[in-house]
C-alpha cells in the first residue's frame, strides 16, 4: 500500500490533531472494556442446557459465546440429557459442544466397566468432547460393604486409564467448597449458605460419617498421581476455591491439570476484596491453566421465563467486567457481619483471551 500524505497524517500525532481525533479517548490497547464483551469470541465451558430450547444458544451466539453443555450424573435421566445435548449440537453445528457423563449406579456389578466404556464410546461417537464426574462419587455412592466410593477407588481405575489412553478430557466436580464442612454460621459466602440450607443432604458438616474435605482433595490427587497423562480440569476451582495460593500449589503439583471458575467467581471476589493484587497475580501467573465457565442451568423450571435470559446475560457481563475492567462490581458483598466492596481485576487482553477462549480451544480441542 502506498503511504499517502493523507494516511501518514492520519497515523501521526500531527495527523490526529489535524483530524480532531486527539480529543477522542483512544482505546486502551492492552485491556478490554465492558463493551468489548459482546465483540470478543468466548467459550462458556460449563453450561447445563437441559432442555432443547433455542433461546439460550441464540443469546450465546449473539454475544459470541460458544457453549459447552455438560451432562451430570444427577437430576433427570442420563439418556434424556444425552439426547438433548446431541440434538443441540446438531442444531448448532460448530457453535455448541457437550461433555458426556456415565452412570455409576451399577458400580460393583460384573459388567460395570464394560458397560461404562461402551457408554463412553457411544458419547464419543456422538461428538462428546470429554466426560464429567460428579460429587456423587465421594459423597453418595457406596460399595457393597457400605463404604463411600472415592474417585481413586481401584474399581474405577480402568475407566480413567481408558480416557487417559485416548486423550479424552475429564471434568471433575469432586468434593465441595470448604464451606460445605463448616457449621452454617461459619460459612463465608451467602451463595454457599443458601445452597446448603436448601440442600442439607450435601451439607457435609451435618454428615460426619461421610469423608472429610481433606479426603476428597486427597482422592483427586491420587487419581492424578495414578493417571499422570489424564487431561483433567478441576471444575469449581478444583474445590480449592477458598485460597488462590492452594490452587496455585496444586497447579504446580499437577502440571497438566486445568481449573475452571464456574460458580466460584464469588470466592475469587471475596479474596480480591481483601487483596486485589493477590487474585490478579494468581490469574496472570496461571493464565494458561484457567478457563471460564458460568455453571448456568437451563431446565424445565426456568427455560420459559424471559427473566432467565436477563439473569444469564447479566451474569456473563458482570463476570466479564470483573475480570476485564477495574470498575466497581459489587457495592456490598456481605460476608458474616462484614460488607466488602468488589472492584474488577483489569486483566490484560492476552490473559482474557486465554481464560475466555484459547485455553478451552486447546484443552477440549474446540475448533
Ligand atoms: Zn455444573
From TrEMBL:
<keyword id="KW-0456">Lyase</keyword>
<dbReference type="GO" id="GO:0016831">
    <property type="term" value="F:carboxy-lyase activity"/>
</dbReference>
<dbReference type="GO" id="GO:0019748">
    <property type="term" value="P:secondary metabolic process"/>
</dbReference>
<dbReference type="GO" id="GO:0016787">
    <property type="term" value="F:hydrolase activity"/>
</dbReference>
<dbReference type="GO" id="GO:0005737">
    <property type="term" value="C:cytoplasm"/>
</dbReference>
<dbReference type="Pfam" id="PF04909">
    <property type="entry name" value="Amidohydro_2"/>
</dbReference>
<dbReference type="InterPro" id="IPR032466">
    <property type="entry name" value="Metal_Hydrolase"/>
</dbReference>
<feature type="domain" description="Amidohydrolase-related">
    <location>
        <begin position="114"/>
        <end position="366"/>
    </location>
</feature>
<dbReference type="InterPro" id="IPR032465">
    <property type="entry name" value="ACMSD"/>
</dbReference>
<protein>
    <recommendedName>
        <fullName>Amidohydrolase-related domain-containing protein</fullName>
    </recommendedName>
</protein>
<dbReference type="InterPro" id="IPR006311">
    <property type="entry name" value="TAT_signal"/>
</dbReference>
<dbReference type="InterPro" id="IPR006680">
    <property type="entry name" value="Amidohydro-rel"/>
</dbReference>
Amino acid at each position: 500500500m502506498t503511504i499517502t500524505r493523507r494516511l501518514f497524517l492520519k497515523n501521526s500525532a500531527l495527523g490526529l490533531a489535524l483530524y480532531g481525533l486527539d480529543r477522542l479517548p483512544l482505546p486502551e490497547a492492552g485491556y478490554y472494556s465492558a463493551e468489548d464483551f459482546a465483540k470478543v469470541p468466548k467459550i462458556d465451558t460449563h453450561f447445563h442446557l437441559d432442555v432443547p430450547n433455542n433461546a439460550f444458544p441464540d443469546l450465546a451466539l449473539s454475544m459470541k459465546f460458544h457453549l459447552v453443555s455438560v451432562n451430570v450424573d444427577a437430576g433427570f435421566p442420563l439418556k434424556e440429557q444425552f439426547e438433548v445435548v446431541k440434538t443441540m449440537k446438531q442444531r448448532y453445528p460448530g457453535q455448541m459442544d457437550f461433555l458426556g457423563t456415565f452412570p455409576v449406579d451399577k458400580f460393583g456389578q460384573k459388567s460395570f466397566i464394560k458397560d461404562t466404556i461402551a457408554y463412553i464410546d457411544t458419547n464419543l461417537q456422538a461428538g462428546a468432547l470429554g466426560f464429567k464426574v460428579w460429587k456423587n462419587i465421594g459423597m453418595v455412592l457406596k460399595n457393597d460393604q457400605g463404604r463411600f466410593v472415592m474417585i481413586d477407588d481401584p474399581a474405577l481405575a480402568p475407566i480413567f486409564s481408558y480416557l487417559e489412553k485416548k486423550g479424552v478430557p475429564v471434568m471433575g466436580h469432586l468434593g465441595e467448597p470448604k464451606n460445605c464442612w463448616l457449621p452454617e454460621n461459619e460459612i463465608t459466602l451467602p451463595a454457599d449458605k443458601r445452597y446448603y440450607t436448601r440442600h442439607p443432604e450435601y451439607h457435609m458438616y451435618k454428615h460426619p460419617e461421610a469423608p472429610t474435605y481433606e479426603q476428597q482433595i486427597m482422592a483427586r490427587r491420587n487419581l492424578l498421581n495414578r493417571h499422570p497423562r489424564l487431561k483433567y480440569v478441576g471444575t469449581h476451582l478444583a474445590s480449592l476455591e477458598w485460597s488462590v495460593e492452594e490452587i496455585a500449589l496444586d497447579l504446580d503439583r499437577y502440571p497438566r491439570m486445568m481449573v475452571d471458575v464456574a460458580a466460584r467467581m464469588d470466592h475469587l471476589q471475596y479474596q480480591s476484596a481483601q487483596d486485589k493484587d493477590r487474585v490478579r497475580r494468581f490469574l496472570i501467573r496461571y493464565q494458561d491453566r484457567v478457563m471460564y465457565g458460568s455453571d448456568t442451568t437451563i431446565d424445565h423450571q426456568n427455560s420459559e421465563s424471559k427473566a432467565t435470559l436477563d439473569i444469564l446475560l447479566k451474569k456473563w457481563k458482570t463476570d466479564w467486567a470483573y475480570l476485564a475492567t477495574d470498575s466497581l462490581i459489587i457495592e456490598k458483598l456481605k460476608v458474616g457481619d462484614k460488607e466488602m466492596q468488589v472492584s474488577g481485576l483489569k486483566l490484560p487482553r492476552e490473559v482474557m483471551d486465554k481464560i475466555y477462549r484459547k485455553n478451552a480451544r486447546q484443552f477440549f480441542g474446540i475448533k
